[in-house]
Amino acid sequence: MNKEKEIEKDIDDMSFFEHLDAMRPGLIRCVILFFIAMVVALLFKDYIMAVIMGPKSPDFPTNALMFHLAEIMDSEVLKINQSPVTLINTTMAGQFNMHLLTAFYTALVAICLIYYSSYGYL
After folding, report:
1. Taking a C-beta distance cutoff of 8 angstroms, is the pair 54, 60 a contact?
2. Is 57 helix (H, G, I), strand (E, B) or coil?
3. What does the pLDDT average to over 24-30?
4. Distance between CA atoms of 85 and 108, rounded to whole angstroms?
């Protein structure tokens, strides 16, 4: 009990910069973990892009389901994405930027999930 009051007293007596010093190792670990997650996302970019770009394909499950539903209902409106979609870049480094942003957002989601699952028990 006395130890808890002593820790509370120490936390209340710390200055702003002392708090930053106490947080520094955790922040450095978070940044390192973020960059590791980003590198892993870049290594698996083909798989990630296949998941993201899946709905543009006629073989995507939802598109196939809608096609079969359109056949049953005899409706042409539900036959979506039956011709392949070709994507183009409108900027010089569009493909490179797309891969970097995909890796960034994938790493951000991964870090949030890791943080939630590991610190959710505390």
Report:
1. yes
2. coil
3. 81
4. 29
pLDDT in tens, 63-91: 888 888 888 888 888 788 777 778 888 88
Structure tokens at 97: 């930027």
Domain ranges of the chain: 2-119
Alpha helix segments (H runs only) across 44-93: 45-52, 61-73
The position carrying tokens 């394909």 is: 57
Q: How far is CA 49 from CA 30, 79, 91, 111, in A?
A: 25, 24, 19, 19
Q: Residue 29, Cβ neighbours under 10 Å: how many?
A: 10
Residue 31 pLDDT grade (very low, low, confident, very high; cuts 50, 70, 90): confident
Q: Distance of alpha carbon 8 from its chain centroid, rounded?
A: 36
* pTM, rounded to two decimals: 0.66
